[in-house]
Specification:
It contains 12 helices and 24 strands. With 414 residues, it is α/β, with parallel strands linked by helices. It binds flavin-adenine dinucleotide.
Length: 414
């Protein structure tokens, strides 16, 4: 099977690259072994939120202070700024409404009630530009009865610390009560599915409207839609107060929705998405990758002019830790991993974890290397890359989206 470009990994990075390339007329395939980190999505894309423990207000200006190996440092601040604008247009063209700007981080609220700096937040989700502008008025945090993946008291504590007048209550309808017979059923994706049926959302909205009388703002768990955002729109139209959604513990309903929308967009553009197959190895001639093999297709090679590897970090098995070494398991690409095993992590889970910055080494054009030699038709993108500690610096989605766009643009230029 032959394609213009084959992308290994169908998470945020792989799909963004695939959509960009197919929309410019390329024949592309994405091969993905499983689901992605989007199923854990907070509702916000981070670009660069923190320098150590210090908050970053302007991510573009902060790029100058990054290590030279960081993906943003390799791209350069002006390219990051241009790609960040391209990313906003990219999602807008798919009908995904996001608020925020690369030159001025805003705050999102985490499921544990912490205000965190971020770049773009899904429309209708909690966001505020500054602590001074946090004007919610009298606020009700409303959970669904028995839903354990949303913690109103954590949120309330967090908001009360900022001076918000917060109250907590819960609401339900019969269909949702039935999910409670098993705690494993009472999850965000299942709640969203139940609300899609018949007039469940209409009745739940009526109950929410009753409870929220006399409040200026109602905060709800983000469980309104894994197929589309129609239920969110309905809620906002019907309720008389401000409505703010806050992401839940996983699975993330808006993350699943985003993953499905990206996949659908790629397929509508003619892309081939192969889910459940794993790329096992590749065949190189000189510094070019000629073809790859997968677990399901065994001896049948997949050939392409260009390849993109977007297999994620340890979480998605894009990187693997062995007793004394870290490797990229498909091609054995060069990775940065310093020190002995004991130095890969800090015993204190809240400290910076060195292993989070391990990743694949690339040159400035995102070509990875094998024994120091760049592979000229292979690009490495996303959370697989070295030096970005997505958790500590809040840079995850930004690195994935911008490096994916950059690799796609490089391929199109060739
Ligand atoms: C739990 C979690 C939550 C996060 N939440 C956020 C957030 O809310 N906001 C934010 O900005 N950042 C977040 N991040 C950072 C995150 O890394 C990025 O946002 C981004 O989604 C990562 O996308 P990716 O495509 O690089 O990797 P992934 O999403 O990990 O996707 C990699 C894909 O490659 C596939 N794959 C792996 N090996 C193979 C193989 N051999 N063959 C074929 N396919 C393969 C996997 O199955 C997977 O589908 C989070 C990270 C994690 C781990």
């Amino acid at each position: 099977m032959r394609f213009d470009t084959i992308i290994i990994g169908g998470g945020l990075a792989g799909l963004v690259a695939g959509i960009k390339l197919t929309s410019e007329g390329q024949k592309c395939a994405i091969i993905s072994s499983g689901q992605s980190a989007l199923h854990f999505f907070s509702g916000s894309f981070d670009l660069l939120g923190y320098n150590g423990t210090n908050e970053i207000d302007n991510p573009i200006e902060a790029i100058a202070g990054l290590d030279a190996k960081h993906p943003y440092a390799k791209l350069g601040a002006s390219t990051v700024a241009a790609l960040a604008n391209e990313a906003k247009d990219f999602f807008a063209s798919m009908g995904v409404r996001l608020n925020g700007d690369a030159s001025a981080n805003h705050y999102r609220i985490s499921p544990t009630g912490e205000l965190r700096k971020t770049w773009l937040t899904l429309d209708k989700h909690f966001a505020c530009d500054s602590l001074e502008s946090l004007s919610l008025g009298k606020t009700l945090i409303l959970n669904i009865d028995g839903f354990l993946d949303f913690h109103p008291h954590f949120l309330s504590d967090g908001l009360k610390r900022q001076g918000v007048d917060c109250h907590v209550a819960s609401v339900t309808i019969d269909e949702l009560q039935r999910l409670r017979t098993s705690p494993t059923e009472m999850r965000s994706a299942n709640i969203a599915k139940v609300l899609h049926k018949d007039d469940a959302i209409v009745r739940l909205t009526e109950k929410i409207a009753e409870k929220s009388q006399g409040f200026d703002t109602v905060i709800l768990p983000s469980v309104f839609g894994i197929y589309d955002s129609l239920m969110e729109n309905y809620l906002v139209e019907r309720l008389k107060c401000n409505v703010k959604l806050v992401s839940t513990f996983p699975p993330s309903a808006p993350g699943i929705r985003l993953q499905m929308a990206l996949k659908q967009r790629f397929q509508n553009l003619g892309g081939v998405y192969m889910l459940g197959d794993m790329v096992t190895n590749g065949h190189f001639e000189g510094n070019r990758l000629m073809d790859i093999h997968t677990a399901n297709h065994k001896d049948i090679p997949f050939e392409a002019d260009n390849f993109i590897i977007a297999t994620g970090s340890f979480f998605s098995h894009g990187l693997q830790a062995h007793l004394n070494s870290i490797c990229e398991p498909i091609f054995n690409l060069d990775v940065t991993a310093s020190g002995e095993r004991q130095q890969w992590f800090d015993q204190n889970v809240f400290e910076t974890q060195p292993y989070m910055s391990f990743g694949v080494v690339t040159d400035s054009n995102l070509h990875p290397q094998i024994e120091g030699q760049s592979v000229e038709n292979l690009y490495a993108v996303g959370s697989l890359l070295e030096s970005a500690n997505c958790l500590k610096e809040a840079s995850g989605a930004g690195v994935s989206i911008l490096t994916a766009l950059k690799a796609a643009n490089n391929i199109l230029k060739r």
